Amino acid sequence: MIVMTAESRERVREYFDALGDAEWHRLTGDIRGRVSLEVHRRLLARFVRPGHRVLEVGAGPGRFTAELAALGATVVVTDLSPVQLALNEERLRGSAAEAAVERRELLDVCDTGRYADGEFDLVLAYGGPLSYAFEQAGAALRGLFRITGPGGAVVGSVMSLLGAWRHFLPGAVGVAEAIGEDANDLILRTGDLRHKGEPGGHVCRMFRAGDLTALVEAAGGEVVALSASNWASLGDLDALASLEADPDRWARFLEHEIAACQEPGAVDGGTHILFAARHRPS
Ligand SMILES: C[S@@+](CC[C@H](N)C(=O)[O-])C[C@H]1O[C@@H](n2cnc3c(N)ncnc32)[C@H](O)[C@@H]1O
Questions:
Q1: Is 34 within a domain?
Q2: Cα 80 to Cα 85: distance, rounded to the nearest angstrom
């Protein structure tokens, strides 16, 4: 039995409050994270233009708030976690990016009713806010399309079911041993980590690319870009380290990696799936 949505939300908030500043290092602390950061940056740069007004959902400590500022956007910075929102202010204080922040406020991605139709050019939801919306993800996405309007875009990333299963296989095998194969089958079918049945810890809903596309379409949108967060960079760490040590080879590798991540055969293969979507004209 999985817990109800409101309890799940509280659990996620507690998780990110407790995680605190560790979230800042997630995309810089190791090579795979640095590749994922670059994949996320490149997708964002395809959709943000100078002067855009952006709602950033689940902004965390501000890695992409700074990116949005560098791309010339103004940003309403939001998060479910008051601790993450405070860290966002701390991290950006005194930086050039702070001037691009219009305001900061607490926001659940499922609760965007306070914003007007079409008031933003773009909504950014990187790092899984829709993975934490569980059964409300579709309604949340519909709300994001409403506030961006017909010309706008929603750019985000969710946790990847198949890529995470492959990358974290030893952990997944351990989970199956602990909770039983039936519960494990349920996780692999639904992507919902709440089926682990533990009282605390990290939970989210992981997606297949097909699930994500279906969710976007059911919410009245169309997917205009899809990418894995990693492809070859989930492979051998020593090989990656020698590539990263050589700036020319690293730049070439990143170009190949970013192109590979967008191949239809690769989009499920990273730990996250990135997407850009627009309101579908009716
Ligand atoms: C993994 S962090 C990503 C931070 C940042 N966007 C990035 O990609 O580096 C996920 C963030 O989403 C926030 N979050 C989780 N559930 C949310 C929800 N229902 N609504 C809004 N934000 C949420 C968390 O508090 C956390 O700051």
A1: yes
A2: 8
Q: Residue 233 sits in a domain of what CATH number?
A: 3.40.50.150
pTM for this predicted structure? 0.96
Domain-located, residue 191:
no
| Nearest CA owner, ligand 1 atom 12 | 58
pLDDT at 4: 54
212: which residues sit within 8 A by CB, 6+ positions away? 158, 223, 226, 273, 275
Give the total number of structural domains in the chain.
1
Q: Name which residue sits closest to atom 17 of ligand 1, judged by CA.
A: 129
Question: Smallest Cα–Cα separation from 158: which of 193, 199, 201, 113?
Answer: 193
Residue 157 forms part of a structural domain: yes
Residue pair 97/69 in contact (Cβ under 8 Å)? The answer is yes
DSSP states of 61-74 as a string? TSHHHHHHHHTT-E
Q: Which parts of the chain sit beneath pLDDT 70?
A: 1-4, 282
Assess whether the C-beta atom of 253 lies below 6 angstroms from ligand 1. Answer: no
pLDDT of residue 1: 42
Domain coverage including residue 152:
5-161+200-279
Q: What is the mean pLDDT of the chain?
A: 95
In a domain, 133, yes or no: yes
